[in-house]
Fold these 2 entries.
Entry 1:
Amino acid sequence: MKDALLEVEDLKVRFKTDDGYVTTVNGVSFSVNEGETVAVVGESGCGKSVTSLSILGLTPGEIYNGEIKFNGKDLTKMKKGELRRLRGKEISMIFQEPMSSLNPVFTIGNQISEVIMLHKGANKRQAFDKSVEMLKIVGIPDAQKVAKRYPHQLSGGMRQRVMIAMALSCNPKLLIADEPTTALDVTIQAQILELIKKLKIEFNTGIIMITHDLGVVAEVADRVVVMYAGEVVEEAPVYELFKNPTHPYTKGLLSSIPQIDQVVEELGSIIGSVPIPKEMPIGCKFHPRCPIATDICRTSHPSIEQIGLDHKIRCFHV
Ligand SMILES: Nc1ncnc2c1ncn2[C@@H]1O[C@H](COP(=O)(O)OP(=O)(O)O)[C@@H](O)[C@H]1O
Ligand SMILES: [Mg+2]
């Protein structure tokens, strides 16, 4: 087995609210190898973003348990300054809405240059040339011209390419992409996913792809981590997950993918919604929505178990 680039081990994150603490990430473990794309999938509110922001030390919540090891070093114990130097250089992140991460008052070229000068110690000229080169790599036509434009002068798809160019400008070892294509139309989405796949091969970047969309998972992932209510409920290589989904939640997610020959009213899907943290059910957190729940599910909390090579699941009924 390859050495893991990132190892998240028993991560717990809580938020202080008027009613006391609520834990929204509750014992999450997974790892990412070099050049591997791990998809983290689950409905909205399952804790995907809180998990990924924790890796970068950017979550507004409090990490109160666990380790996040990057190349063997625990990021949760790192000083703020040290972590800041790592961000953008060794670990980069792209978000759903690139406009919120781009500065409206600087040109595209200046913003990418800034990152390169900060982390690579390049001078202005070198950094600008490298920015243009990165814009070309992510498939932006007329890169020289685009580098002189401002974010609002570009389309959503172009802005997302710019974000990716910026995220990759220092050859990070790990790229965290949180719903990077959710706000884009299907054609552009396909192009961006194609680009991410290409970059992974070219730079051997480890990627965490966060998404609620199993179509995206099928497209880019090597391995899949399924999250529900702050926990990992299933983990498997992508081929195995689609061929042999085992957790009732995973099965539900898979049956909610529209099939070409299905009429809309017949869509299979999971009844109900993700519980809010302060109303977390006891026992298995999925039991109120689970079609096969029994007494034990209502009273006991299942632990995650290995059920095959690289295949883990958290369910009493395997
Ligand atoms: N700043 C915050 N304060 C309090 N609760 C939060 C905060 N950010 C996220 N949460 C809660 O944490 C849970 C997980 O959220 P999130 O990680 O954003 O879900 P996902 O990315 O899977 O949609 C949700 O219940 C959300 O309400
Ligand atoms: Mg999210």
Entry 2:
Amino acid sequence: MTRTMRALVLEGKGSLCLAEVPLPEPKEGEALVRVRACGVCGSDLPRIFGDTAYFYPLIPGHEFAGEVVATGSPKDEEWIGKGVVVYPLIPCGKCPYCRLGEYALCEDYGYLGSRQNGAFAEYVVVPVTNLLPLPQSLSFEEGALTEPAAVALHALRRVGRTFGEIAAVFGLGPLGLLAGMWLKLSGVRKLIGYDVDERKFSLARSMGFDVTLYPSFFPAEPEGIDLVVEASGSAQAFVDALKLVRKRGRVLLLGNQEKNVLLSPEDFSRILRKELTLFGSWNSSFAFLDSDWKKVLDFAGSGRVSFASLISHRIRLEEAPAFLLGMRERRIPYVKVVLIP
Ligand SMILES: [Zn+2]
Ligand SMILES: [Zn+2]
């Protein structure tokens, strides 16, 4: 008799269904994790409702925390019963980037919730090497936010020192807010947040943003804005970032764009004339000596940062298909939505 579990299965474009599926079995080097909380990522929506899924049927979900209930081999049994967070990227371990520990740049990686089944389910199988213990002081929901917090931290580590600078963030969704949280912690002098939705302003201010503005409003900062973080995924925000940033300033690109980005000759010329530096950022580092994940868990576990206030909704698996459609169609105002299987 095979045991089963409940999971949200993406059966085709836009068709996410609650189903009873076989319980996956951990092989050597793997662990079976009971999912206790899984965040809905901005990237899950185009994966579910657009054309970015790698295959069907797929169980999405890559931002999660839970507890280990079984392991594939006895040598890993010490994990059983432990609360964990899970790095969703499964590196090949062989390519030049993996050998440097730069797993996020791997040439041939697996990914929980996109390239293999993820955690919109009661259980998920993961490599033991991708586990980190969840600090006792953090809830599973906070643990589920480790991934976006690590992605935001990784992005800011790309741009170097920001102490004493003036920074602006476009897009006050989870990644923009988390970027602001790390910027504040790193000692920026002034932090400006932009969003087209004014309902996000009070949360942003409670997380340390000094000023929150509608994007068309550019305050006259006499010294100029040193760093602009584009976390909205809007092409207009990218153009606005080029306008807003000071000469020789930095623009950090963190938001995925779903459509073509067109730059006018004038806007392109700003990159040249202002001698701007553009930074791309992707995923997060999990390397032993340089782990964004360990830093996030250290800071959050010791109470130096808190991101629990980002959670706007907790929903159950059976509510998810309709709820996620509402998110996609922007009928539901939300910040971070967490599934509780
Ligand atoms: Zn994500
Ligand atoms: Zn690799």
